[in-house]
Amino acid sequence: MKQEIQVSIHPLAQFAAQLQWSDVPAPVQDRAVDLWVDWFGSVLAGCKARPVASIARFAMSQGPASGPSEVIAQGASSSPMMAALANAAASHFAEQDDVHNGSVFHPAAVVFPPALAVAQAIGASGAELMAACVAGYEVGIRVGEFLGRSHYKVFHTTATAGTLAAAAAVGRLLQLTPAQMQHAFGSAGTQSAGLWEFLRTAADSKQLHTAHAAAAGLMAAYLARDGFTGAQDIFTGAQGMAAGMSSDANPARLTDGLPNGGVGRWATAETSFKWHASCRHTHPAADALQQVMREHGLKPADIAQVTCHVHQGAIDVLGPVVSPTTVHQSKFSMGTVLALAAHFGHAGLTEFDAQFLAPDTVALREKVRMELDAEVDAAYPQRWIGKVTVQTTDGRRLHGRVDEPKGDPGNTLSREEITAKALRLAAYGGAVGTAQATSAVASLWQVAQWPRVGDLLAAGA
Amino acid sequence: MKQEIQVSIHPLAQFAAQLQWSDVPAPVQDRAVDLWVDWFGSVLAGCKARPVASIARFAMSQGPASGPSEVIAQGASSSPMMAALANAAASHFAEQDDVHNGSVFHPAAVVFPPALAVAQAIGASGAELMAACVAGYEVGIRVGEFLGRSHYKVFHTTATAGTLAAAAAVGRLLQLTPAQMQHAFGSAGTQSAGLWEFLRTAADSKQLHTAHAAAAGLMAAYLARDGFTGAQDIFTGAQGMAAGMSSDANPARLTDGLPNGGVGRWATAETSFKWHASCRHTHPAADALQQVMREHGLKPADIAQVTCHVHQGAIDVLGPVVSPTTVHQSKFSMGTVLALAAHFGHAGLTEFDAQFLAPDTVALREKVRMELDAEVDAAYPQRWIGKVTVQTTDGRRLHGRVDEPKGDPGNTLSREEITAKALRLAAYGGAVGTAQATSAVASLWQVAQWPRVGDLLAAGA
């Protein structure tokens, strides 16, 4: 019954185990650092939220009362697993963390928390941490693409592919051999879980999903280092992830353009930042409005009417929201989003909370309408074109346009914008003061030069 | 967008949250205590095995160095989650733990470890512990039946349904309300995972599966107590467990005969003990051989030939194993199993390890053959009938028969046999001495009278 089994190492395991920071091209390194700083804002925005606090309390009750890994902005530390659990829960709460469009996967929330916790525990350098995180992004995005649309219909890809992403990042930090990395993938994939069912009653599972992915992936990597074995073909095996959780899995996506000697497709750099805190369907028009206001020096009061030329999907999702009565609803109101963007230059968490029913917001909201546009609709979903026509109070008819929403790779954020966004999120979360957040973010930009990863926030945060 | 959602409490959540030990009929209480003692032997058999030791090391590295919950026979303690992780890993290693035939689910491994760890942490009584464990069995078995055969083809039901079983047991100990129990089910189900793919290369995932189920279910219950919400219909919702992981799920099984006021179907009592340490297809014939030997006072040397009258499945699985060369293979050799049973009264772990190639074993093995039997084949798989014909050296032709293999509910083990099996497993594991194991097992039989659940092994084990 027992047979000797010839096992070959999957190129993705090989890649993740061997990636060096110096292999990563400079523009991708820079983008990875951008994503790292952007992630930090999301953690600070979420860390005091009720469901996140529940997970952090649980983590602190099950881990040691102090340890090598920072529980960010809780004034606490614990073991790597418990810190990863708490920080990952915080990362995805405000829904301002990054997103990879093709895989519909939010990498930051499941990669940075476990990697940071382990880097702090083993005294890794900043460059080692960032190489591990790039490995996590590259693996997680490809696993998400591999699992496909059928998977995403029922499973939360950030939770499922996220377990593999976390294992890859932690495994790289623990210097797993390619064979050990393959075992870690097996142990991660067999713990891969996360169902969308919670959405039906707006339950708290999203925080549990990122926490679970981070902790389970971390455990898989530690076990692999200790000689614990896992399935050798967890992706495409007859009883593996695709067999259990997908009907349109595409194995070619697992290795699509996998970089070799630095050359190839760096999926990390395809990751988008979220700029506005609203439904994605509102972003192109909001950016187009800002474009035309900048170009013509318009103030909100100059606007008599805005026509958003949109794809059908935007009308389907946003059309019913005429008069929002909750903050959540207002993020699906095209008029509210455009009004906030016009007044504040962005539609952020704070603006929604404080201003969604302010008279200025409502006044401009009432002047916004949507219209189906053939060009925009035809380009969607490959391209999210933003087009608006503005009628000014002095009778002009002006056109605004963006070809890619702000935050996507072709229209990315500047480092100043990333810093500003992170500080806004930190202020929104209220867990740390402005000075402390400012100083922490300034330091985070230097991560690749850190000889050793320490606490991101000074003690006593 | 936000709607008020009317939520009803699932009868299974209601049942699990409200079950009292005094609701459980005395014969079911007794069976539950039998299963509890039987489980303890499995933990001691597995606790020093390599994959189990890896998980225990990981647990101890991530939890506090000491805590309220016993890491059994490791001379250690930690937090409930970490103790549950380690003890659950140990429980399923020797594959001598119990099994519920209808759900193809091994309840003990995923119910007792998290329940024990939490009972120790909160100072529960033995009756509270056992009520919680019955809740775990009843829930886990029904979830396993609900998920069905299509699920089991790809997913390891002990891992997936096990997460729900663990949540139910721990949730009961934490005195969750029915509504909280439903949230705990949601949080458990969305972490439910475990793929059979590891079998292809005999990887270590089985230990990870029980560990993960225990820890994830425990976390779900603790979070629910803290107000953390989960999906309200994690079983049959459009993006729930059945939607993601089954194509033949049967919702009626979730509440099949659910006891009400003590009256109903107690699935706990349907659970089978494993008596022999071999492939289940060998058990009926091994028991029938022992029956005929007892009846006629035969010794192994009296046997000239044994014909096993079997179902086709037994021939398919066992037929190829003619001359086993490894311990694992020998557990699929009908001749070896019958030889060990004839010589030692049972085919246990120790007998396989030490005797599978002993001259006496091989000599009798060579006298055993299988033959398809119409009655046995027609009854299978509802009934596993054992039938043998023995030709004696003095020329007699004798027939042996059992209608249910030893360990199944209709042919269950006596308490003496359970004690003996547990002590054999303890000796096999080698983690504790005979005196200590004997004294611990004697105490375990009194669990329902314990005012407070303490360590199962005296300190210094």
Automatic annotation (TrEMBL), chains A, B:
Q: Which InterPro entries match?
A: MmgE/PrpD_sf, MmgE/PrpD_sf_1, MmgE/PrpD_sf_2, MmgE_PrpD, MmgE_PrpD_C, MmgE_PrpD_N
Span of domain MmgE/PrpD N-terminal: 12-251
All residue ranges annotated as the MmgE/PrpD C-terminal domain in the record: 276-443
Q: Name one GO molecular function term.
A: lyase activity
* Family (UniProt): Belongs to the PrpD family.
UniProt-recorded name of the protein:
MmgE/PrpD family protein
